[in-house]
Amino acid sequence: MRHKNNEKSRKIIAAATKIFAKKGFYKAKVSEIAQEAGIADGTIYIYFKHKDDILIALFEEKMREVLDNMKKQISLESDPFAKIERFAYFHLKLIEDNKDMAEIIQVELRQSSKFMKNYQNKKFAQYLDLIGDIIQEGKEKGLISQDIIPGIAKRAFFGALDEMSRFWVLSKRRKYDVETAARQISSYFINGIKN
Amino acid sequence: MRHKNNEKSRKIIAAATKIFAKKGFYKAKVSEIAQEAGIADGTIYIYFKHKDDILIALFEEKMREVLDNMKKQISLESDPFAKIERFAYFHLKLIEDNKDMAEIIQVELRQSSKFMKNYQNKKFAQYLDLIGDIIQEGKEKGLISQDIIPGIAKRAFFGALDEMSRFWVLSKRRKYDVETAARQISSYFINGIKN
Amino acid sequence: MRHKNNEKSRKIIAAATKIFAKKGFYKAKVSEIAQEAGIADGTIYIYFKHKDDILIALFEEKMREVLDNMKKQISLESDPFAKIERFAYFHLKLIEDNKDMAEIIQVELRQSSKFMKNYQNKKFAQYLDLIGDIIQEGKEKGLISQDIIPGIAKRAFFGALDEMSRFWVLSKRRKYDVETAARQISSYFINGIKN
Amino acid sequence: MRHKNNEKSRKIIAAATKIFAKKGFYKAKVSEIAQEAGIADGTIYIYFKHKDDILIALFEEKMREVLDNMKKQISLESDPFAKIERFAYFHLKLIEDNKDMAEIIQVELRQSSKFMKNYQNKKFAQYLDLIGDIIQEGKEKGLISQDIIPGIAKRAFFGALDEMSRFWVLSKRRKYDVETAARQISSYFINGIKN
DNA sequence: GATGAATGAGTATTCATTCAT
DNA sequence: CATGAATGAATACTCATTCAT
Predict the structure, then answer these.
(1) Nearest-angstrom CA–CA distance, C82 and D67
(2) Which of these three, C49, C70, C89, is where a domain ends?
(3) B: neighbours with 3+ CB pairs under 8 Å?
(4) Measured between alpha carbons, how far is D135 from D80 in angstroms, rounded to an integer?
(5) What is the CATH number of the domain that holds C81?
(6) A110, B107: Cβ pair inside 8 Å?
(7) Closest nucleotide to B46 by C1' from CA
């Protein structure tokens, strides 16, 4: 897994994103990814030791991007509730703009824990913690009820957005626009937890 | 080809539930399921035409049970908010009591849409609609704000519960007990949508 | 490596003997062996876990036969020198009659120690010991000089026969007949070690 | 394509000797040899057209050395029996001093005839003929029985030494020292063929 | 000449599915 | 109906060899 050439590594991940989204990890052939990337089958193995490693690297790369982007978005607001709204909007926007990536994270991330025993998805935990931190902040500022348990609330909020994403990813056509969905979901949540 | 009322059919599904939960659909071998069921490999093909069909039948059977059970629970309450609380509690209780089933629905249901192109998960839609119907009822009774879009709200609520389940399914130890989680999540939601 | 059906197991070994002799272990394809045996590729893996295991089983089977046969031959003589002569004759005869087997033992047995780290060729050691025991007996009867070290002598005698075999195996045409070669080699040896 | 006098060519052969001895020809990777030689993979192909050619060149170089050395040793004696004793001693000494080379010649030379259809090992034939010539000389001088067939005797003697070598090459610890083994084996042979 | 990234032909092994008993 | 031995299509991965730099 030499990484002399990062450009090719990214090309492979981009191709894999497309193929995994279309076929799913198990049905995707390494040779298809190679073809999509415009390289030879063997070249993939210069950059990734196993097929599994492509998926892991894909997650890490995508999650890093998502995480960085979301941190930036949140930092633009100071009010915890505004942060939550922004989180909802940009999360759903991201799904809309990156359907392939969303599908993989939706579908494959779920089974990942099964075939990647030792792979700890730290990036995902950090992403959830962005919400947890906002809630904590809200509690400290007296905006959010002291009864709220951040560990449950962050999952409830993420799950609400995530289920919406899944619906979109698996549907052919998009019912409800991003703005509406984001506004509704963040509104339920904010009203649900505010003091 | 399927003989739905057969006892052996259920034995196979029970075995498959265990094996799919442990290994995931793709890594589970038909021969393992046969062994777990105490029958010969070939016997499985008397009851199911393909490996995929076992998973589909498994979903249908489990979802039917879940659906029937949840309908019964909901009917015991007349107040929409009480129904929501009961839904949350019994959904999470179900996960706790049926870890194997939960894991399969969590993990494999996601990829199912990929390999089962033509499989329409009607039972799952009906399950979601249980929530949608409660919300509709709440709106009609003036308990829930008219702004709430049931198609979004039902997914937000289900997603919140589902993410909690996923956390439990993938964690070794169970943080937060069922009652607490159910109370918190239904409370956010009810407060979030009530008039 | 179930062995329900010994007949098929032997059929595979017979086919492997032919193919390994023709191509060598590394160049022999499992599919060729299957074809030669008149079975499907996958069937081989019902009887042998790996390609390596075919070679190991082949050795064990052939060496058992060779060993049993040679023990019988030796027991027909009571004089140690007559035993040595008989050993030489039947060893070379065996090579002549089983060219494929001889070639594999000649060629592949040598490299076997390399890829089969843990495979201890006990049968071969027992074969060598047949000679060692004769020498020991000869020493005890005062027919063979006390200076002779059986551990060296048995290898010298076997090596002499073996080199002759190798010459035959690798040559197109057979120079020197079995009787002549056996007589010459056992004669050098007997005269060389007798008291 | 080969540049025989090149220093790099020898460096590659030296590296190959080490790697082939450790892993065997088929399991040795060209890249490993390159690394051992401290050069790039592609450089090997400037000096050798195929992996096979490295083995052939290795044989030729080693056998030339061995042959030259043995010729020199033999020429130091005038008595045929003394020559035989010296041959035995220096053959076994060579094995002891060059374990890697010995292992390759022992193990890989055997299979070489298989993958190198057209490779005629003339050097090896010349080596055997050194013994054949001594026997011929002995017969002419009346020291060796006229019944002895040099073509068989030379192989018997070489085979005896060779089997001893093989035992040493494949054993972890060396039983019997070189002097003892050489004395024993040449003694059997000389006594066995003398007039 | 030297490099080493890229190539792609080659193959052992797996496992869902079949079917003769 | 039940069996389980047999099938053979399918595919991840390796590594000798090439060739642009």
Answers:
(1) 37
(2) C49
(3) A
(4) 7
(5) 1.10.357.10
(6) yes
(7) F1
CB atoms within 10 A of CB B109: 18
Does B106 contact A106 at a Cβ distance shorter than 8 Å?
no
- The answer to whether B42 CB sits below 7 Å from nucleic acid chain F is yes
Calculate the CA dihedral of residues B38, B40, B42, B47 and round it to 10 degrees.
-30
pTM above 0.85, yes or no: yes
Same domain, A8 and A85: no
Residues C76-105 pLDDT 10s: 999 999 999 999 999 999 999 998 898 887
Q: In the prediction, which pLDDT does A12 show?
A: 97
Question: Distance, in angstroms, between D42 CA and closest chain C CA?
Answer: 24
Judged by C1' against the alpha carbon of B37, the nearest nucleotide is F2
Q: Which residue range(s) make up the domain with B138?
A: 60-193
Model confidence over B76-100: pLDDT tens digits?
Answer: 999 999 999 999 999 999 998 988 8
Answer yes or no: is D169 within a domain. yes
- What residues contact residue B7 under an 8 Å CB cut-off, 6+ apart? none
> What is the C-alpha to C-alpha distance for residues A171 and A180, in angstroms, rounded to an integer?
17
Mean pLDDT of chain B: 89
Domain membership flag for residue D42: no
Q: Quick check: is B179 in a domain?
A: yes
With CA atoms as reference, the chain B residue closest to A187 would be B192
Domain assignment present for D123: yes
Specify the number of domains making up chain D: 1
The whole-number pLDDT of residue B111 equals: 63
Query: Separation of CA C110 and C1' E1 in angstroms?
Result: 39
Do C74 and C86 touch, CB atoms closer than 8 A?
A: yes
pLDDT in tens, A92-150: 999 999 988 888 877 776 665 554 444 557 788 899 999 999 999 999 999 999 999 99
**C141 and C81, same structural domain?**
yes
pLDDT at C120: 59
